[in-house]
Amino acid sequence: MNWAETTLVNSAPRRWLQRCYEVPVLLRFGGRLIPGTRALEIGCGAGYGSQLVLERFGAAGVDGVDLDPAMIRRAGARLARYGDRVRLAQGSATDLRAALGADDGGYGAVFDFRIVHHIPDWRKAIGEVARALAPGGRFYFDEVTAHALARPTYRRLFEHPTEDRFSAEEFLDELTHHGLVVLRSLTRIHSDYLLGVAAKPIAGGGET
Ligand SMILES: C[S@@+](CC[C@H](N)C(=O)[O-])C[C@H]1O[C@@H](n2cnc3c(N)ncnc32)[C@H](O)[C@@H]1O
Q: Which Pfam families does this UniProt record tie to the protein (predicted)?
């Protein structure tokens, strides 16, 4: 992320939107987590999303992964009060085994607060999310589509991969391609943003 985006994502208005609009939508779509659930946040940035995963979604613990070591340091400072409920790792959402070690396949929930659109091989990241979830686990996502990234303000102010970005439909299709069942989703501001929840089916049972 460049300076402008780092400033924006860590600003009070952005956190207000996340806390007061996006989290309530995701809670309405996917509910709070079953007690004892350990969650993963990909692209945890400075750790505000992980704090919401603990406080609002009721996760027992959260593992946060971010590519940027400076972000991991900031998240470590923010989340220190939670002790061993939080583990942070520097690495890529496209290779969670390398970032997290061997025990990366059993998360009850994975959270994506606006990170997948930053990843050149975003399909690989979706595949990793599907693999990291335990059967019955849920993927909570809040994404920025190609429609938003094509806007002059986004192009001038921020730096994102320019090739092969996704529409809302393409993102949802990719979830289905990796075996996830989309429970509910919505787009807002002319499909600029996509929010939703998907579930990894339990073999031989329902999706949750
Ligand atoms: C727009 S910020 C969002 C940060 C945080 N989720 C939030 O809502 O405040 C995107 C974050 O994704 C991280 N990121 C970009 N590519 C990544 C990758 N391949 N794997 C993990 N994190 C990545 C960036 O370092 C940055 O912290």
A: Methyltransf_25
How far is ligand 1, taken at its centre, from the CA of residue 156, in Å? 19
Architecture of domain 3-192 in this structure: 3-Layer(aba) Sandwich (3.40)
The residue contributing the CA closest to ligand 1 atom 15 is 118
Question: Quick check: 34 pLDDT over 60?
Answer: yes
Are the CB atoms for 106 and 131 separated by under 8 Å? Answer: no
pLDDT in tens, 155-204: 777 778 888 889 999 999 999 999 999 999 999 988 899 999 999 999 86
Domain boundaries, the chain: 3-192
The token duo for 157 is 């102010």
> Alpha helices of 80-183 — where are they, by DSSP H?
96-100, 122-132, 146-149, 152-157, 168-177
Q: How far is the CA of 203 from the centre of ligand 1 (A)?
A: 32
Distance of CA 82 to the CA centre of its chain: 20
